[in-house]
Amino acid sequence: MKTPISDFVETYKKSGESRFHMPGHKGKSFLGMESLDITEIDGADVLYSADGIINESEDLASSLFGTAHTFYSAEGSTLAIKAMLALATQSTTREKPLILAGRNAHKAFIYGAALLDLDVEWLYPEPFSHLCKCEITAELLADKLPQMPEKPCAVYITSPDYLGQTADIHALSDVCKKHDIPLLVDNAHGAYLHFLKTSEHPIALGASMCCDSAHKTLPVLTGGAYLHISQNAPETYLENARNMLALFASTSPSYLILQSLDRANRYLSDDYPTRLACCIQKIKAIKTQLTEKGFAPEESEPLKIVLHTAKYGYTGEQLAAYLKKNHIIPEFYDGEYLVLMITPENSDLDFARLTAAFDEIKPKKTLPSPTFSLQKNISRMNLRKAMLGAQEIIPIEKAVGRICAAPTVSCPPAVPIVISGEEITENAVEIFRFYGIEKISVIKIS
Question: Where in the sequence of the chain do the CATH 3.90.105.10 domains occur?
Answer without folding.
Answer: 383-443
